[in-house]
Amino acid sequence: MLLRLLAALWLACLAAPVAAPLAAALPGLVPEQAEPQPTPTATGALSDERDPQADSRIATRLRDIYAEVEAFSGVEVAVNQGVVRLTGSAPSQEAIDDAGAIAARFDVVTVENEIARDTSLEGTADIVTALIDRLRAAAGMLPLIGVALLIGLAILLVGYLLASLKFLWRLVTPNDFLADLVASAIRFIAIIFAAVIALDIIGATALLGAVLGGAGVIGIALGFAMRDTVENYVASLMLSLRQPFRANDLVQIDAFEGRVVRLTSRATVLMTLEGNHLRIPNSAVFKAVIVNFTRNPQRRFDFTLGVDADDDATAAAELGRTTLEALPFMLAEPAPEARIVEVGDSAVMIRFLGWIDQRETDWFKAQSVAIPAVKTALEDAGFGLPEPIYRLRFDPRSASVPFENIAARGAGSGAETTAPGKPRAATAPPPTDVAPRNEIDEMVEEERDSSEQKHDLLDHRRPVE
Questions:
Q1: Which stretch of DSSP H or E encloses residue 337?
Q2: Could you tell me whether strands 250-253 and 256-263 are parallel, antiparallel, or unpaired per DSSP bridges?
Q3: Which pLDDT tens digit goes with each residue over 114-129?
Q4: Cβ–Cβ under 8 Å, residues 55 and 81
């Protein structure tokens, strides 16, 4: 064993002089010992050691960069322990931000940007110079601006030509109001499209976005401010499409009654039965309850009379109904009716109903004739039409009324009191004219023949809603 150990040491001593030249000749075959690598630090962590020359190199590099840019010529740089402090002045806030961004790209701890904006006359001169440069650039773009204007004008011309074809829009729309609305929409679209194309050609898309954004905000504000106007305009459009009445129809819109003169883009014009003009905003008309008295020529009137509670109310109702049937202007179908509706304080109330044809009979005249006819027939038949009876009770503490003395004085004077007789017609009254009144109709037709008729949205060719 000892002999083997001595032999190994002897061989190692012989191989040492040969191994060194061989390793130098064949470096790739002999593995080198790896150099120790520094331990990586955490990302963003600051080292506890710093090159003392790093601050000066960064400051020098920043000064050289800022010297090459005219906007940064007034910027001063100081670097200490990796903290960059920028002072001095710059012509604009954009230049200040750019200077700070350049400094932040170096291996520094932080950047203290204390650059002030230059408000001196020299800075103003720079601004004026920049403005002049921009004007020169705009002057160089004059040919392109001219082409953009020509294309925009061509688009406007085409749009206005299409909008002027009102005869075509009247063919495809229900009325003139809608045709004018389509023409206005075409003109508006042409203006917007021409502006978009022209600004896109000259590369002013940013300006286009600002204009459209401002227009949107202004449009929303105007929409809230002119809400009633917009609502009235939309109501006019809907009424022109729906046609709820015809010209010269007798209508009641909420509490307003009259004959329709015209429907305009803003209001519905009525002529009241007193001959006055009444203008109702279309927004109110669109939401109102409308009663059209002319749509159905048959119209019913009714009135109520009371007979004495001791009389036969059924016989009185039948007599009144027969009296209505005998009137020449009353329609046989639907037949007149008499309904006992209630028992009052001193009478039984009977409601009489009758139908007329408004094309031949005036509604107000027919009612004025029917009421006295039924009343007279009931009185002639002996039915009492009592007035309300009230019982008065006097406070016993008040002075008593000397009714006996008054009666005695009346009896002593010898005056005879007689109830006045009821006036009666000596002969049968002549036939009453119940023909429809035409004075309001004639006024409406005369009004419709005026120059304002061209603004009417009522169209007799369209069906009534």
A1: strand 337-343
A2: antiparallel
A3: 998 877 655 555 667 7
A4: yes
Q: CA 20, CA 30: separation in Å to the nearest integer?
A: 11
Contacts of residue 199, Cβ cutoff 8 Å, sequence gap at least 6: 148, 205, 207, 208
Using the Cα atoms of residue 419, residue 423, residue 424 and residue 426 in order, give the sign of their dihedral: positive
Q: Could you give the C-alpha distances from 303 to 273, 348, 358, in angstroms and in order?
A: 21, 14, 18
Element containing residue 259 per DSSP (H, E):
strand 256-263
Long-range Cβ contact pairs of 65-69 (< 8 A, separation 24 or more): 65/102, 66/99, 66/102
Which long-range contacts link 389-397 to residues 24+ away (Cβ below 8 Å)?
A: 389/345, 389/346
Nearest to 444 by CA among 285, 247, 295: 247
What gap in Å lies between CA 345 and CA 343, rounded to an integer?
A: 7
- Convert the pLDDT of each residue in 258-278 to its tens digit: 999 999 888 999 999 888 999
Q: Give counts: helices (H), strands (E), the chain.
A: 14, 12
- Token match 């150099």: residue? 35
Angle at 20 between CA 17 and CA 23, to 5 degrees: 145
d(C-alpha 196, C-alpha 148), whole Å: 10
Q: pLDDT, tens digit, for every residue of 21-47?
A: 444 444 443 444 444 444 444 445 666
* pLDDT tens digits, one per residue of 313-359: 999 999 999 999 999 999 999 999 999 999 877 889 999 999 999 98
> Which pair of structure tokens corresponds to residue 426?
């000596």
CB 83 within 8 A of CB 55: no
Distances (CA, A) of 152 to 112, 141, 193: 50, 16, 8
Locate all alpha helices (DSSP H) within 273-414, ordered by sequence. Answer: 282-287, 313-326, 363-380, 403-412
DSSP 8-state secondary structure symbol assigned to residue 311? S
